[in-house]
Amino acid sequence: METLPNPAHPERKIKNMKNHPKNRWQDSVAKTLDPVARLVYRSNLIGEDPTLTNTGGGNTSSKIKETDPLTGQETEVMWVKGSGGDLRTAKRDGFSSLYMEKLKGLQKNYLASKTKGPKTQIEDDMVGAYAHCTFNLNPRPSSIDTPLHGFVPARHVDHTHPNAAISLAACAKGKELTKEIYGDEVIWTEWQRPGFDLGLILEKLCKDHPKAKGAIMGQHGLINWHEDDKKCYELTLELVGRAAEAIAKKDRGEMTFSGEKYKSPGEKERKALWLSILPWLRGRVSAQQRMIGTVQEDATILRFVNSKDAPRLAGMGTSCPDHFLRTKIKPLYVAWNPATGDVAKLRSLLEEGLEAYRADYKKYYEKCKRKDSPAMRDPNPTVVLIPGLGMVAWGKSKSESRVTAEFYNCAVEVMRGAEALGGYINLPQQEAFDIEYWQLEEAKLRRMPPEQELARQVIAVVGAGSGIGKETAHRLAKEGASIVCVDLNEKAAQETSAELVKKLGDGIGVAGTGISGCGPAIGLGANIVDRKSVAEMLGEAVYAYGGIDGVVVTAGIFVPPDLEGRIPDEKWAQTFAINVTGSYVVADEANKIFKAQGLSASLVLTTSVNAVVAKKGSLAYDTSKAAANHLVRELAIELSPLVRVNAVAPATVVQGSAMFPRDRVMASLAKYKIPFSEKEGDEELRTRLAEFYAKRTLTQSPITPADQAEAAFLLVSGKRFPRTTGQVIHVDGGLADGFLR
Ligand SMILES: [Zn+2]
Questions:
Q1: Which whole-number Å values give the CA distances from 449 to 348, 376, 452, 477, 710, in the listed order?
Q2: Distance (Å) from CA 185 to ligand 1 centroid
Q3: What distance in Å separates the CA atoms of residue 203 and residue 687, rounded to the nearest whole number?
Q4: Measured in angstroms, how far is the CA atom of residue 738 from the centroid of ligand 1?
Q5: Residue 248 main-chain phi, psi, to 5 deg
Q6: Which residues are catalytic?
Q7: What confidence category does residue 480 fall into, taking pLDDT thresholds of 50, 70 and 90?
Q8: Distance, CA of 584 to CA of 590 (rounded, Å)
Q9: How far is the CA of 475 from the centre of ligand 1 (A)?
Q10: Taking Cα atoms as reference points, which of 141, 89, 46, 41 lies closest to residue 505?
Q11: Neighbours of ion ligand 1 (CB under 5 A)
Q12: What's the pTM value of the predicted model, to 2 decimals?
């Protein structure tokens, strides 16, 4: 144990530093920054530390002297984290800026209103008034927490959602413990929904307790302030550290959550159990709208789900308002005994649990709804807890489901802390409802841009390492799908997925075990002629996202004949194995997932115009593609009505194609007597050949991977051709010889 001077309170030494968040402030960085940039820096430092706040939670502010663009005079402006975004990733444009004088001036209007106080109309109206206080046309909307910052007189304010502080805030004896831990430095305030009135309460608190440095806001979190920004940051660390210390002192060790009731199976067995349940469960929770999953099965969450107290605590629901907007008022917990390994029993318990959950949610809505409440939302749980296995969280995108998982991780930590401190208490149902169905929240939801066409969909692209597959992966990702990039060449698949993640960003939310902590794309290796390899690949995809909605297969092979025009038997067999059997194996394995989910799905294969045009020099390839065409039709019948099966049939896509290596391009140029030089680059030669091919088509234009990707997108999306199945679409520039008949 070390003893160090306490930066915020030099008179007091900090003991047991291990419970204290790490101070990561660097003067060398801060001194190069302007006052707003220092606020961004401080915010990012707080946001990056999960012990200090959760994704999207908390906000920070600085009151800064600025030159008024209207008068040229100096004026005081508050920069405060605006609505949306989060502290970890916030940049300058994430902060709103308000004239302090105007913001303070709103108090007069508010106080003049006959009805005022929490949950009154005037409170919500005030949020609209913040826009009128905007300094310098800053377009970032102000959050509902703006008055919490504005009415505290100190120059710098941090409001955070640290698990340790929320444990205190959500503890039966929170008020007494706050006094015990912080003396008069931090004052307790009772739970109240954030808004104008809470700002006034804090203003009064500062007046009544001039020495106070912060407040624990009941069932919510921590707020603290300082005249100096670095000291404000250090104060945040210190106050969180002191709460964490108090919890550590009362840590119940083996008896956390009253001790263990169930034991988890080993890692491998657990994963097999997850895979046997996930697609089915996804289908169930997606009854109203498709959801993407995130699995969490680390020691912390397993300790919770396996504990004696888990059913009681899970039933109480989450406390911090930030948490339950994503996690719903409570998770679904099923009392399955993992020692039995009985998956059928687990399924039936989940089925019963889901039914009861939906009925309960409806009851909660009916009981708490007000005259003007928005319509009831999806009654399915977003967090499912299974003893022995852990947790799966659901959201409309991968990023959202990670946030949901993160918030329930936080909720578990809060419950652990609060139980250690003397007993966890939840927020009363009506209060939870008034947050969940707040008109302001509803308005926020309505302001969101409409969902993308492939949002909520997970699509695997087999052959995504190059050419048409790579292009298709990009095309589908652009429409909002989560993409599983698959290739025989695992590295190439991962390169494509890395490109997608770079383009789209990882999103927010810090949770998920192993590959389930992924972003909008993953890259996996698989050999489509090996059923085991395909099954393993699909298993990884299911573990990463919860299920699959579509598969596009672009993988294929062209083996040129030898100089005498012959193709060896093993090459013939290989051509059929990859071009026909491979597609079949992928379809057959994916269909197991589609069936378990019970959700409509789509399969797109890639055949070739050569399937219907017999020509010299490509006997094995053409014959295999003819078989693939018929495979499409057979699969369309076999997999109906749940799965649509169609194909794209390209012709002579030269650009970026792995099927047109340099020597094949040169051989073709020579065959058609097109002059070229060996010194020319690959793409130059390919373009020349592509132009030659283009001239043979009806549209007279070269055929690109993007053309194929577009067709794959139209076919895989359930919205464009929802009633088309068993069809092969030629994307060939128009070859009369290839017309289907
Ligand atoms: Zn808050």
A1: 38, 21, 9, 17, 23
A2: 20
A3: 71
A4: 64
A5: -60, -35
A6: 621
A7: very high
A8: 10
A9: 38
A10: 89
A11: 221
A12: 0.92
